[in-house]
Amino acid sequence: MDNEYTSGLANTIFCRSDTFPVRYLGLPLGANPNRLSTWKPVLSTIRAKLSIWKRKFLSMAGRICLIKSVLNSLPLYYMSIFTMPKGITKAISSINRCFLWKGTSNSHGICKVAWHKVIQSKPLGGLGLGSIHSKNLALMFKWLWNLDKGVLGGWQELIL
User: Fold this and answer.
1) Is pTM beyond 0.90 here?
2) How far apart are CA 148 and CA 132, in angstroms?
3) Which of 24, 138, 28 is nearest to 83 (CA)?
4) CA 63 from centre of chain
5) What are 63-99's pLDDT values in tens digits?
6) Hey, how many other C-beta atoms are within 10 angstroms of the C-beta on 128?
7) Quick one: which H or E segment has residue 27?
8) Measured between alpha carbons, how far is 81 from 139 in angstroms, rounded to an integer?
9) Which helix (H) or strand (E) holds 24?
10) Contacts of 7 (CB under 8 A, 6+ apart)
């Protein structure tokens, strides 16, 4: 369809026309979730949060608390809809790692403990930060669980 025709239809019903990808509830509809550009808003949000914190005055315990409560929860909405590409998983883990050890999101230095040990649960000797990749897998399997249990209601018949 040409732009004049769609604009005319949109004006008739008092709405606007747009092209894909369109943002709906903060998610890009029609965008490829496997592309790194789709996830740029998530990375920029995480970096923006880090830039406003007074990292010079935060102790290690304070940084751990902020990683658990804020940095790991920012991408949850995207992660509940899309499977996260490995490059984004690595980027978020890198931001978390740099913030934990250095207090910044982009400076690299010597890590005191291997990251795979840091993200383990506390009973296993880690700090309980959790793996971003594991959280994404759990959120993706939630959809299969809901389909199996019939939780999706009317959408289940449409999907299957």
Assistant:
1) no
2) 25
3) 138
4) 19
5) 899 999 988 888 888 898 889 999 999 999 999 988 8
6) 13
7) strand 27-29
8) 8
9) strand 22-24
10) 17
